[in-house]
Design goal:
- Pfam families: Alg6_Alg8.
- This is Alpha-1,3-glucosyltransferase.
- The chain has two domains: 378 residues, no CATH class; 87 residues, no CATH class.
- Helix content is 57%, strand content 3%.
- The chain has 21 helices and two strands.
- It has a two-stranded antiparallel ribbon.
- Helix 5 runs parallel beside helix 7 and helix 14 packs antiparallel against helix 15.
């Protein structure tokens, strides 16, 4: 369903490879089918919520995410991003339709939570029974971190003993503050994008009927959602209280989704493949205790072969060189652990070295998600406040400053054409609101936007965006970026969604 909804404009072969990259993700398979847990259900509900958001069904998306939260508390890592996205859409729709959507989302979420917790509420249980699930959701009594997890607290604990210098209460407050600071950029980015893209900005002339249609359509800042999910979840993994090794599965979901839509020589692909491999490596102490050594090696080899990733080829970028050095460190640690037992005074030396190798990779990934969120928000016009034109006509949303895709953002066959698309999108929106070539503006409507795209409906019937996951229009057979294609947003009757249509604008 994900490949149909988010990658409906891609080739069938590309969709199949993307599906295999998701289904064969080694970290998830090893934990759920080797360590025997059910994280895939929680992640599946979240992915289903993303699909509903992409098709404009926000209420169903809210229900699915609430079910994800109810199934496993680790889904709370996504809550700041999901909540900010829905609130940003309410801002985008304006005070009338936005307030109605906000109330509906609140009612649906509260009703779903009530049904989930009904067995712990009177008359089915005493009122104190609700404390049982709450204590498990927030396990403050279990310590700052569990085992040797590759996050900030465990890695820094090598040099600074946090439990010695701070009380548990102080550590709870400190970890909460650092976690909030960590996901704050994603929250601010989404909310500000919703405000700058609002349809009821001063001077706009959006018709009431078209505004009603926009309620059941994804907003133009949907492409920020995967980066916000990654930023939020990685912030929780690195800085929150009581983190387990397997919680790295939560930030791996949006990162693997980004990988599935990227070209093989892009920055996104390189980083996503590296982090997926290092994530499996970071769980090695847990997998070793479960006797999953053979499966550990086999799944890594199979998955990297399926996605066409070979980290030991000649480095073509600084990222590839860094990845090569990290892989050499991982393999060297495995060999050292195999031939030399740990010294008696340092029985945990190998798990600690594992943490010190893995944590910097996850920290850089968190910073990268912030950087990419800013770039995508800038390119989609989310960092430019909408202002009415002198003639009082409809403001042109998506009018981002001119950005050109370069090696600093992606490689020459980059998976994201969103920077150049922001410029072309500005021109296309200008054409949409322009009635004549003389430049005289007329009232804007969804129907006219669709006429401008002049394209047949997508076969997948979904959100066929080439930039929804930060990816460009990459041909599956050759991995070539078709730079002639850019995007414009138009409302397609019958589907009830905003469709990112391709057009030969460049």
């Amino acid at each position: 369903m994900f490949t149909r909804v988010w990658q409906g404009s891609r080739s069938t072969r590309t969709q199949h490879v993307a599906l295999l990259a998701l289904l064969l993700q080694p970290a998830l398979l090893l934990i759920d089918f080797g360590h025997f847990q059910y994280n895939s259900i929680m992640l599946g509900f979240t992915l289903l919520a993303m699909n509903f958001f992409a098709s404009g069904h926000d209420l169903f998306g809210a229900i699915c995410f609430t079910l994800s939260l109810g199934f496993k508390q680790m889904a709370l890592y996504y809550a700041p991003a999901i909540g900010s996205y829905l609130l940003a859409k309410c801002l985008y729709l304006g005070p009338d339709q936005g307030l109605k959507l906000f109330i509906r989302l609140g009612v649906v979420t509260a009703a779903t939570f009530t049904l989930l917790f009904l067995p712990f509420l009177p008359p089915f249980a005493p009122l104190s029974g609700i404390l049982q699930p709450i204590n498990r959701i927030f396990p403050f009594a279990r310590g700052l971190f569990e085992d040797k997890v590759a996050n900030f607290w465990c890695a820094s604990n090598v040099a600074f003993k946090w439990n010695t210098w701070f009380s548990r209460g102080a550590l709870v407050k400190l970890s909460t503050a650092l976690t909030a600071v960590g996901f704050l950029p994603s929250v601010v980015g989404l909310l500000y994008s919703g405000y700058t893209h609002r349809l009821t900005a001063p001077g706009s002339r959006v018709k009431p009927a078209d505004l009603q249609k926009a309620v059941s359509a994804p907003p133009p800042f949907l492409s920020l959602l995967p980066y916000a999910l990654m930023c939020s979840s990685m912030s929780f993994f690195l800085f929150s209280f009581q983190v387990h090794e397997k919680t790295i599965l939560v930030p791996l979901l949006p990162l693997t989704l980004l990988l599935s839509g990227s070209a093989g020589d892009s920055e996104t692909f390189e980083l996503a493949a590296l982090v997926n491999n290092v994530a499996v490596f970071s769980m090695w102490p847990l997998l070793k205790r479960d006797g999953l050594g053979t499966q550990y090696i086999a799944m890594l080899l199979i998955w990297n072969r399926v996605i066409g990733y070979n980290p030991f080829t000649q480095p073509r970028s600084y990222l590839r060189s860094l990845a090569l050095a990290i892989y050499i460190a991982c393999i060297s640690l495995h060999i050292l652990e195999l031939i030399l037992p740990p010294p008696a005074p340092l029985p945990d030396i190998y798990p600690v070295l594992n943490v010190l190798i893995s944590t910097p990779v996850f920290g850089l990934t968190w910073l990268w998600s912030i950087k990419r969120g800013v770039e995508v928000g800038w390119a989609t016009g989310g960092l430019v406040r909408a202002s009415p034109s002198p003639s009082g006509a409809t403001p042109i949303h998506g009018g981002a400053p001119v950005l050109k895709a370069s090696a600093s953002m992606e490689s020459t066959s980059t998976t994201t054409s969103v920077a150049s698309a922001g410029v072309t999108q500005k021109k296309l929106w200008r054409n949409t609101v322009s009635g004549e070539t003389t430049g005289r503006l007329r009232a804007w409507s969804w129907a006219e936007a669709q006429k401008m795209s002049n394209l047949p409906p997508s076969g997948g019937g979904g959100f066929a965006s080439s930039s929804a996951l930060g990816g460009g229009d990459v041909e599956g057979e050759t991995g070539r970026v078709d730079q002639r294609r850019s995007v414009t947003v138009g409302y397609r009757e019958g589907a009830g969604i905003l469709r990112t249509a391709s057009t030969d604008a460049v």
